[in-house]
Amino acid sequence: MQRVCFLLKVRTDRVAEYRVRHATVWPEMLDALSASGWHNYSLFLREDGLLAGYLETEDFEKSRRAMEATEVNARWQKEMAPFFESLDGTRPDEAMKPLGEVFHLP
């Protein structure tokens, strides 16, 4: 099982709304994530907009491709894109660059 962590930056003026949106994630989005192999997926958000994501999956690239192929993900990414800084024309899910793990205590 791969453990994946990534960072993104939410616009500070959109932090409160980002929290609200994630309190009510669409059921079909949740189903697609699970079906695509995303497990123990968590997002952590600081008030300055720093967002840390964590998930576990058998194969991160395969899970990303599976989500990319879903219609619900396209809709979700389109709605979420305005919340983020520095996407440089990419979707939020494309901007997720995993951090290298340097320590793990099982």
From TrEMBL:
InterPro entries: Dimeric_a/b-barrel, Rham/fucose_mutarotase
PANTHER family assigned: L-RHAMNOSE MUTAROTASE
Name of the protein in its database record: L-rhamnose mutarotase
Source organism of the structure: Streptomyces lateritius
